[in-house]
Write a structure and sequence with these properties.
about 90 residues; alpha+beta; four-stranded antiparallel beta sheet; 3 helices; globular
Length: about 90
Amino acid sequence: MLARLRGQVGGAADLLAARSGMIADFQADRDGFLGARLVQLPDGEWLDIVEWRSPADFAASRAKGGTLPGIQAFFALIDELVSSEEGTSR
């Protein structure tokens, strides 16, 4: 899953600090979560690259939403979801 997002103005440090809690919650609560990378782009945007074992695992995670504190804290720092795409790693 590729998500392009815009964080809060001046909030890069907060976003990065909250990232570890989100990753820990995903590892503990989301079947099929393989890992994630966050890439800082120009103009306050970020590219979040999240890897899942299968599309079904990603769909199950999406259905759960932001149910845990670490996930909620990270999501709260996102001002805008610019785009989101799903793909398969080869």
